[in-house]
Amino acid sequence: MPDRTRVLSALAPHRWVLEPALAVVLFGVWLVTGLPFDLAGALAVLLYCAAVALSRVLPVVALEIAWLAVVAELSESSALPLPHRIISAVAVAIALFGIASHGGRVVRWFGFGSAILWAPAMAYLFTVRGDLKFPQFGPVIGGYYTSQGVGLLMMSLLLAVVFVSAWLLGYLVARQRATATSGPVPSLLVWLASPGGGAEAAAEEGDSPRLVRRLTRPQLTFDIAGAVAYVFFCLVTDFTSSLVPDASGRSTFLVLIVFAVAVALRRMSPAVSLAIAWLAAAVQMTTGHNILVSDIAVLIVLYATALYGDKVVRYAGLISAGVGALVASLYLTLTSALAQGYFDLLSSQLTGMALQFAFLFVVSATVLGLSWVLGLLVRTWRNARASRHAQIAAELDRNRAEEVVVVEQERTRIARDMHDVVAHSLAVVIAQADGARYARHADPDAVDTALETIAATARSALVDVRVLLAELRQSQPEGPQPSLADVDQTVEQVRAAGLPVVMERRGELDGLGSAQQIAAYRIVQEALTNALRHGDTTRPVSVVLAQAGGADAGPGIVITVRNSMKTPTPEPLATGGLPRIGHGLPGMRERATLAGGSLSAGPAGDGFVVTAFLPVVSGVRA
Questions:
Q1: 311 phi, psi to nearest 5 deg
Q2: How far apart are CA 52 and CA 18, in angstroms?
Q3: What 8-state DSSP symbol labels residue 193?
Q4: Residue 13 to residues 2, 181, 189, 197, 595: CA-CA distances in angstroms?
Q5: pLDDT for the residue 377
Q6: pTM greater than 0.90 (yes/no)
Q7: How does pLDDT run across 226-259, given as a tens digit for each residue?
Q8: How far apart are CA 156 and CA 33, in angstroms?
Q9: In this structure, is the dihedral angle defined by the CA atoms of residues 289, 291, 295 and 298, taken in order, positive or negative?
């Protein structure tokens, strides 16, 4: 890859030579096939080659020269032979590619209109004025047989497919080049068409342009193997009995191979695959074939344009489905009428032909449109699945971040609450020590009492400090800190808000330190708040503060808050995402953990139960 990039970088300044070199090659081919020398033919080929040579640096001039060449040929009394016509058609296709790649917006769309108009003009030069003739049968209209008109129509279709495909490829190259101004070259085709002069193409709206998609080795192997299997299937089902060494058999095999190439490229480059499929269909109709098994490639390609193509390619596939249905139904109706001699009785068979055309059009549009719609549905499903996965991942990250924020906020809140407890304990210790120092001579017994108070207070404060661990928040709280005795006041406040509460105390609840009492109060407060917000307020809430003791947990207090839910189970979110994590449960769990206990919360039957255990502080260990 580095060697390839280095070679392309070295050749980049000389890309402008490509189109003049192609023009010289085309003129050299004319010299070989056009001898003996013909002045009119040489002048026409020179004009076409000049259009090719200037398509990069002067796309406007190239478009004008190409028009001059076509008009000059139409005004001449003599026509060029078939080899000259093929060279001129190839030159027009190359010029259209260059004009679409390097021209401005106005010039580019003038090139598209020119491609549509040049197709019937050059088809006329090929058939009516040229050497390519079709069988003569049917009624004569304007001096030409009806079969010749059908042949002219098919040739116009073939050339329109070639010219429009060349223009479309150039247009897609311009779009992709406009969004790939830096970094590695996305494809050799885009590198070859990179600007060496002329107007810059502007980026179009829509999906990210991608003419050639990068496939992994397994994907590329699978696509090639699928094309080979497609060829084998068509040979077995349709061609085994008809592959004979005649012109019809060779043209049928050619159509199959071209369709197989389109199938192989359907995922790598949907735009190129669509152009090749159109070319194969035009060759099939031009050579007089009806419906073949190989035509299933059209459905595969339309499916791929909707699934893998960008915005322009998708719409090109949809337009191709409609135009293809119209062309196919018209072709089948006309060939059927010619084969049965309906044109001899045109007036009596006109209604039948119209009904046949309408039926074929509806069937063709339905089949082709369904294949395109199926690809679009699969694309939408894949995008929705990727978006859903991204949404779930984002919600998981959000929930984790929210939980971290909630925990940190609760730690800060606990530190703020406990600050007053620690400050109060230190103030008591200082006051008792000062009092004992002044009273040690007058009342020695007061010293012992002061020392006992200092020891108890310091022991309790040390327990609180160990609970806080590394919390360093020193903001001043507002008002006194709550304790277990304040639970009754909280219950009364909740009752006054309209939620019936049944309060029950069991056993001795003494011995809790300041941190445990604050944690108990906050847990009951938050649980009642959640019950008031999310529970059934018509049914009572049970609050139980019970003494705990045993081998599993040790002495302490068990808090149980049970409330009824509005619905037995929470309703799933309409978006299919994860439920949001509130601040209540993580905060209660963090308080219980920092106080040395534990907490569990969750649905239980038709209610919601919060259960917390907080240990009793019996002393301080060294």
A1: -60, -45
A2: 10
A3: T
A4: 18, 15, 16, 11, 74
A5: 93
A6: no
A7: 999 998 888 887 655 444 444 457 778 888 899 9
A8: 24
A9: positive
